[in-house]
Amino acid sequence: LVALSFSGAIGLTFLMLGCALEYYGVYWPLFVLIFYFICPIPHFIAKRVSDDSDAASSACRELAYFFTTGIVVSAFGFPIILARVEAIKWGACGLVLAGNAVIFLTILGFFLVFGRGDDFSWEQW
């Protein structure tokens, strides 16, 4: 849990550096925070709706993976589009992309560690 918190802080630091450094000075990249918050929502909905936990795959779970993949790809594409239209500088884009990679790996690590249905789950927190 401490390592996940530390990696989340590192990812947010990259994001803030891409926005707040005097050379970059624009806060448009902060809109990727929306993608961070909506990324786990399809998984939560699929886990709540899906009642067949025995099956290796279900249509609901696959649809949740599809939507989550779309959200993650959009989060990586958004700063590239902002840099392409020159709303932000390419250095800020690189910092935001590094922050995206760290944050999404942190979210993935959280669900790998706490997402199983055993005694050590995130529902206890």
UniProtKB/TrEMBL annotation:
Its main location: membrane. It comes from the Eukaryota. One of its GO terms (biological process) is negative regulation of growth hormone receptor signaling pathway. GO terms for cellular component: endosome membrane; Golgi membrane. It holds the Pfam family Vps55. The chain crosses the membrane at residues 24-42, 63-82, 88-114. PANTHER family: LEPTIN RECEPTOR GENE-RELATED PROTEIN, LEPTIN RECEPTOR-RELATED. This is Leptin receptor gene-related protein. It comes from Athene cunicularia.
